[in-house]
Amino acid sequence: MLEWLNTHIAYWHWLVLGLLLITAEIFVSGFILFWFGLAALFMGVLLLAVGMPITLQLLFWAGLSVALVVLWLKYIRPNWKDRTTSGMAMEALTGQVGSVIESNIGRSRGRLRFPAPILGEDEWQFMSTSEVAVGVRVKVINISGNTLVVSPH
After folding, report:
1. Boundaries of each NfeD-like C-terminal domain copy (predicted)?
2. 17 versus 122: which is more confidently predicted?
3. pTM for this one?
């Protein structure tokens, strides 16, 4: 069997295997197959330059795959946090502090501005139980529809 594999496995077999594994990652969660596929692609490129027996190819592929998975799980994944706030409107806005740019004195609502855009907007409409003058810093305590509920900070 090994004799047959030694004579019939070519570099492009590894490239195809790598592409199949990377494509299969779309259907499997965990981001693990990607690293096995990447190792297979590396083996395909390596075989273009250096010929080696199938047992050594399999050992290199397995070792590189495991090393890439360990690197991913131990060093890359913990630092790869989702810092976006998409889909988390309530969590992204609650506790944020902004400055009033249109007072709610004599009206039910005013406008405030955040130092940096939150959920794509840096100006938001707000309502408060107390009247707030222009320039006062306010803190978001809740959300009512598209309007922020704030209190003076």
Report:
1. 91-152
2. 17
3. 0.53
